[in-house]
Amino acid sequence: MSLVDINHVSKHFGSLAAVNDVSLRLERGEVLGLLGANGAGKTTLIRMMCSLIRPDAGTVFVEGRPGYMCQTFSLVEELNVHENIRFYAALYGIGRDEAVKREKQIIDTLELGPYRDRQVKFLPLGWRQALSFSIAVIAEPPVLILDEPTSGLDSLSRRRIWKMIHAKAAEGTGVIVSTHYLDEAYYCSRLTIMNSGKVIAEGAPREIAPSQESLMNYFRRP
Predict the structure, then answer these.
(1) Do 22 and 6 touch, CB atoms closer than 8 A?
(2) Closest by CA position to 30, among listed 149, 143, 184
(3) Structure pTM?
(4) In whole angstroms, what separates CA 108 from the centre of its chain?
(5) Would you call 19 exposed, middle or buried from its count of C-beta atoms within 10 A (0-12, 13-18, 19+)?
(6) CA distance 34 to 19
């Protein structure tokens, strides 16, 4: 069975069809890129997958409780690195001993030891996003949903996030990632491209868009 199974889903806000008859699936170990210009319906679809809003029509199935990283910074800025990890571990129902273990793993992996007691609002953006990603997977969810996780990052920080994404996929996690960076489309195993609430193309990146220029054509459609 697919980790995510969305069938003919629609969502309206007044007269606006934010998502219009969309279907998609996500398999284990797959990185599905969700692309589209602002207003295409990506974030609305993601919010339905995370059960933050309900569809007006159709069905949404997501295996387990997904790990979610939103496009705006989602950590508690007034807490330090250590406190954020413990706080979210508690929200996910992770026991104290296991939380201590996973905290050490995150801090060691990200090399955040010198910053353990620093408020996260004072961390560089790249480190904050890497920490947000690590917290999104702290409960080892079968599905990981990332809404523009590399937005505003420099090339090195973007590469670090994608390395983390591919590492989780290699473990069998299904990943859905929305992005507005065209080059990142080719880091995905499959793409779903949306425009005006509809899916207008889907398939392997090089099959539906051999180059970034051809990929751009999907964004130029009315």
Answers:
(1) yes
(2) 143
(3) 0.92
(4) 23
(5) buried
(6) 13
**How are the residues of the chain apportioned to helix, strand and coil, as percentages rounded to the nearest 5?**
40, 25, 35
Quick one: tokens of 136? 């999104």
Tokens of 205: 């990146």
Per run of 10 residues, the mean pLDDT along the chain (length 222 residues) is 96 96 97 92 94 97 94 82 94 93 93 92 91 94 94 90 96 94 94 95 95 86 53
Answer left, alpha or beta for residue 172, where phi above 0 means left and psi between -120 and 50 means alpha.
left
Distances (CA, A) of 8 to 33, 46, 63, 65, 206: 19, 15, 18, 22, 26
Count the neighbouring beta carbons within 10 Å of the beta carbon of residue 35. 27
Report the chain's terminal Cα–Cα distance, integer Å.
Answer: 35
d(CA 74, CA 185): 24
9-to-41, 42, 47, 50 alpha-carbon distances in Å? 11, 13, 12, 14
- What letter would DSSP give residue 84? H
- Of the candidates 115, 118, 124, 125, the one whose C-alpha atom is nearest the C-alpha of residue 149 is 125
8 Å CB contact between 75 and 120: yes
3-state secondary structure of 155: helix
Q: With contact defined as beta carbons under 8 Å apart, do 200 and 218 qualify?
A: yes
Residue type present at position 28: R
**Which two three-digit tokens encode residue 40?**
């295409």
Residue 32: name the closest of 135, 151, 177 by CA: 177
**Phi and psi at residue 167, to the nearest 5°:** -65, -40
How many whole angstroms separate alpha carbon 140 and alpha carbon 134?
Answer: 10
